[in-house]
Design brief:
alpha+beta; five-stranded mixed sheet; 11 strands; NPC1_MLD; two-stranded antiparallel ribbon; 23 helices
């Protein structure tokens, strides 16, 4: 599986907010470009280690000289819009433009397509699916129309939003909502600061440079962050991103992990610092009632979140009872209920499954105790019976010792006779036992290795199997496949490096096979099934290395091949994030075909 597919879920969760789509080169963005020669007085970048960064662009006087515009904190104001054309590795993401502008001005003055009501109908419907919580809160309830992201930007974000996976829809929606607000909230500046801007030279004209966000700060309410973790901590995606074993066991820890700087790698192309309201100075925060003496106060992002309790069954680890909730603004009132809202309506198709998953586990403690007690009672009865026989039944042979039981005497005489016989006739006994063992094992010659997976799932006499055969005869077999089942010659596990590599070589030989049908040269590509309309569909473990031995070698050289294989085998969507991070930490240059 390609790197972007192996790590797709964790990759998307970390970069959605920073990936703002393919920017449209309109006047507002082009105006931000300046001659590279005029970039003086800049400082060292905190994370990329370049020397062309502007620190505190919101208040730095140099920002105006560089044409960055004036930052204003308030409703309807944006901090970023568009994606810089920075050249990055295939599969990596680009940082966003720093463009302090109001959403309405971006539409009316700069002709950006950030007015949601004028988006294509199909894109509006898709956005509703990808950002359901944001859509309900900002577009339906508050009737916001000017967003801080454009339609073109959303089309690029769309695939990445949908790559955020999970076993529970609620946890997926909650994590998506974090980045939907980051990218598109119509009042970004209320809860966001841009700490550093990195000037990148244009790849087509090095004499011009453009501003990309190097570091940003995202302010959130404490209980809002807590509820994000509550709703997702039981799902595998949160466990991958925020492992309790690594000391990550809170909403803030999960958010910080997603915001880590991973330019040209798997993760956010710029640093996103998450800060909770409790760590902010009181005078820096806005009042909940809107009456704040500080016009540039910060209003940490808060909002209603659905709860997975009662919806996602055992996948949900959230508290079944509502938690006390306090907004992150000043003069907030603590309520007795959480900010959780009702979960989205459940599809009736899955209702019975979720009800079954939500049933409490049966407590088998009483049954286990009863079994132990029963065994002890039975043992006591057996011991009592033996004691009774020992005390009341006298041996029939007066020569035998009075202290020996009848059963022991019989067994002793039998074993003595057998031992004497074996001692006198060892060869005959060995031959006899060998014959008995051979006869008992003779049935093994009829053992066969089943190579039809269908027969492993259902009996040939079952209705499902017979109906499958009947429809296959009437309409030709459905989902026709050709299968090769491999097993190591030594009978060992397939989870060994040399076995996997040999399987990859065999798959390559199969793909290279050619046959002549009349005057036509036919290969696998000519007859295979193409599920996506592109490459042949090959359902094999070799796909975890893209059927490419050189890809396998990349992992094998760093003792990561088996770990990568196991991660892909169990949860191919996102369990391999740690393996990819290990490769990135070693500065491994991946082949272009793995991107």
């Amino acid at each position: 599986m390609k790197r972007t597919l192996v790590a797709n879920t964790a990759h998307s969760a970390m970069i959605i907010g920073a990936t703002l789509g393919v920017g449209v080169f309109v006047a507002a963005l082009a105006a931000a470009q300046v001659p590279t020669s005029s970039l003086t007085g800049l400082s060292k970048c905190k994370f990329s280690n370049a020397q062309t960064c502007l620190t505190s662009p919101q208040t730095n006087p140099l920002a105006a000289a560089l044409g960055l515009g004036t930052f204003k904190r308030g409703a309807g104001m944006c901090s970023m819009m568009g994606v810089t054309p920075v050249v990055v590795n295939s599969g990596s993401t680009q940082p966003a433009y720093y463009v302090p502008i109001s959403g309405e001005d971006a539409y009316t003055t700069s002709n950006l397509k950030n007015k949601f009501s004028e988006w294509d109908v199909a894109n509006q419907a898709a956005f509703q699916l990808d950002c359901p919580l944001f859509y309900k809160d900002q577009i339906l309830d508050q009737q916001k129309d000017y967003l801080c992201c454009t339609e073109d930007q959303y089309r690029t974000m769309q695939t990445q939003y949908r790559m955020i996976g999970g076993l529970c829809d609620v946890s997926k929606q909650v994590l998506q909502n974090v980045w939907c607000n980051y990218a598109c909230h119509p009042s970004q500046t209320l809860f966001m600061d841009v700490n550093q801007v990195h000037w990148y030279p244009s790849s087509t004209n090095a004499s011009q440079s453009f501003p990309a966000i190097e570091e940003a700060t995202y302010y959130v309410g404490d209980d809002y962050a807590r509820d994000i973790y509550e709703s997702s901590k039981g799902d595998l995606i949160a466990k991958v991103l925020c492992s309790p074993q690594a000391g990550c066991n809170s909403g803030l820890g999960l958010l910080k992990k997603m915001g880590e700087y991973q330019f040209n790698g798997i993760g956010s192309p710029n640093q996103v610092n998450f800060v909770t309201a409790s760590s902010m100075a009181k005078e820096d925060k806005c009042s909940c009632d809107g009456n704040s003496p500080n016009a540039s106060c910060i209003l940490p992002l808060d909002g209603t979140l659905p709860t997975c309790a009662g919806v996602c069954g055992s996948v949900c680890a959230a508290s079944p009872t509502p938690l006390a909730y306090t907004p992150g603004c000043n003069h907030a009132k603590t309520s007795g209920t959480t900010n959780w809202s009702a979960a989205p309506p459940m599809d009736s198709t899955w209702e019975s499954l979720y009800e079954y998953m939500d049933e409490p586990l049966t407590d088998s403690s009483a049954i286990n105790i009863a079994n132990v007690v029963g065994c002890l009672v039975l043992w006591a009865l057996v011991c009592g019976a033996l004691v009774y026989v020992y005390r009341n039944i006298q041996p029939s042979n007066p020569v035998e010792t009075q202290n020996t039981s009848l059963m022991e005497s019989l067994v002793s005489r039998a074993m003595a006779s057998w031992g004497s016989f074996v001692g006198r006739h060892p060869i005959q006994v060995l031959v006899l036992m060998s014959v008995v063992a051979a006869v008992a094992s003779s049935g093994l010659h009829r053992a066969v290795i089943e190579v039809d997976p269908i027969k492993l799932w259902v009996a040939e006499s079952s209705t499902a199997f017979q109906e499958r055969d009947r429809f296959g005869k009437l309409f030709m077999p459905f989902y026709r496949t050709s299968q090769m089942i491999l097993r190591p010659k030594d009978g060992g596990s397939i989870a060994r490096g040399f076995v996997l590599k040999e399987a990859i070589h065999l798959q390559a030989k199969v793909a290279a096979l050619r046959a002549v049908d009349g005057n036509q040269d036919v290969g696998l590509d000519d007859i295979c099934w193409r599920a996506t309309g592109t490459a042949c569909t090959v359902n094999a473990i070799t796909q975890y290395f893209q059927n490419n031995a050189s890809h396998f070698d990349v992992y094998d050289q760093h003792d990561l091949a088996l770990g990568h294989f196991e991660n892909c085998l169990f949860t191919p969507a996102y369990a391999d994030v740690q393996t990819c991070q290990k490769l990135a930490a070693k500065n491994i240059v991946l082949p272009p075909t793995m991107s």
